[in-house]
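To illustrate the input format used throughout this study, we show a single complete record. The first block contains the structure-token representation of the backbone; no residue identities are included at this stage. The design step must infer an amino acid for every position from geometry alone.
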């Protein structure tokens, strides 16, 4: 029996993740999975394929203002 190989791709949006490295604030390009988790965080994928969950206020979407305005980006948002 031949095994089928499937590749599943999620429509992801480009964003910049604000992170701290060696005491400095940096911006890292990431791909954001389409929907937040139940606790309001987003799954982001780094260029090397690693994934991490991050709070919305650490992301700046590159693209649609309408989508950007749908979420609470403040540090007071539930994380």
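Output of the design step:
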């Amino acid at each position: 029996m031949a095994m089928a190989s499937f590749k599943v791709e999620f429509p992801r949006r480009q964003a910049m993740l604000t992170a701290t490295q060696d005491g400095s604030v940096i911006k890292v390009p990431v791909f954001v999975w389409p929907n937040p988790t139940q606790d309001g965080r987003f799954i982001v994928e780094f260029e090397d394929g690693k994934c991490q969950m991050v709070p919305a206020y650490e992301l700046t979407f590159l693209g649609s203002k309408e989508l950007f305005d749908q979420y609470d980006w403040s540090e007071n948002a539930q994380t």
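Structural context for interpreting the output: Residues 51 and 66 are 25 Å apart (CA to CA). DSSP finds one helix and five strands in the chain.
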